[in-house]
User: Which sequence fits this backbone?
């Protein structure tokens, strides 16, 4: 059934991406921005723009494409304007996991997040192979969680998520707490920081005199084969010498208790820093 969907923050990065996809479908969209600059970007893209309160007031679903740090403020401002039974769809788990979402009785709250196109696996076209974020041509998965409300509302939100992040292969039902384990803990605290370390290692090799082209080719080729081994894409294993080098690297680079980042209190701490960066700056 077609829905009236309000996209709050429709001119931002993620808002622009999902608006482009949803505009291809059957739903009626109300695109909203608060600042004049965002409203102007919507007009320039050919979309009529309205104020957030006006968009939410008549919507069956409101997609909050806004930064996590603003989620409490935005939900406090907009929830009173929502129709009873409306669905509030958030695109990141941090604020929901931290309890920084203004919940209103009679509304349904759902959180979803794209997995992004996988490193391994075939994509049908060159455009899809260059679609690293997803939502353009590359197939990806999505995770979804029900924060408050009914299974019927979750099903409606899943259907919209499939359109917003299309093409979608699979939607994984998890909890908000599990989504916070995936991001920020697994994907950002661990994986992204490891990727930053790899980039800094490449720069260090160049500083040591290795030609940049050779360093980049060597790094990216070895990253691919290492990940293929570790994630079971090929029936192979590290050589005995490589295992020694990996062990040495773990001793030199990683803290022995690094897995503590997955403890609930540590996840709460990093989310607090993400939502309130001004507190970290003061400290």
Assistant:
């Amino acid at each position: 059934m077609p829905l009236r969907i309000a996209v709050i923050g429709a001119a931002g990065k993620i808002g622009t991406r999902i608006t482009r996809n949803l505009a291809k479908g059957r739903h009626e969209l109300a695109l909203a921005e608060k600042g004049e600059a965002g409203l102007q970007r919507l007009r320039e893209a050919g979309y009529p723009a309205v104020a957030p309160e006006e968009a939410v007031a008549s919507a069956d679903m409101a997609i909050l494409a806004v930064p996590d740090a603003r989620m409490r403020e935005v939900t406090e401002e907009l929830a009173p304007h929502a129709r009873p039974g409306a669905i509030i769809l958030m695109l990141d788990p941090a604020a929901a996991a931290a309890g920084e979402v203004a919940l209103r009785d009679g509304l349904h709250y759902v959180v979803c997040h794209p997995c992004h196109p996988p490193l391994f696996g075939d994509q049908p076209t060159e455009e899809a192979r260059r679609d690293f974020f997803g939502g353009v041509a590359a197939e990806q998965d999505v995770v979804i969680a029900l924060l408050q409300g009914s299974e019927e509302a979750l099903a409606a939100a899943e259907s919209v998520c499939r359109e917003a992040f299309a093409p979608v292969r699979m939607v994984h039902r998890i909890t908000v707490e599990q989504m916070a384990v995936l991001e920020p803990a697994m994907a950002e605290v661990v994986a992204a920081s490891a990727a930053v370390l790899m980039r800094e290692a490449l720069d260090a090799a160049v500083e040591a005199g290795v030609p940049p082209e050779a360093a980049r080719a060597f790094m990216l080729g070895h990253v691919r084969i290492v990940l293929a081994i570790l994630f079971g894409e090929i029936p192979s294993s590290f050589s005995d010498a490589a295992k020694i080098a990996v062990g040495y690297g773990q001793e030199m680079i990683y803290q022995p208790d690094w897995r503590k980042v997955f403890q609930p209190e540590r996840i709460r701490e990093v989310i607090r820093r993400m939502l309130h960066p001004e507190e970290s700056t003061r400290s």
User: Anything to note?
Assistant: The domain at 4-174 is CATH 3.40.50.720 (Rossmann fold).
